[in-house]
Task: structure prediction
Amino acid sequence: ETAELFGIKFKDHPDPRPLLLIEEWDEGYPMRKDWEGKDFIRMPEVGQEK
Result:
């Protein structure tokens, strides 16, 4: 999940296939703060009004 969602690659990983995202996913890493995908909806910070 770390490789798919954050873009962190691990050296000598025995099976780096995707677990969560489809293999054709090419929109970047959705859990990174700098990711701005097509359907990105910014959630309000804790304690803020919507």
About this structure: The first helix runs from residue 2 to 6. The chain has a mean pLDDT of 79. The chain has one domain: 1-50. The chain has one helix and no strands.
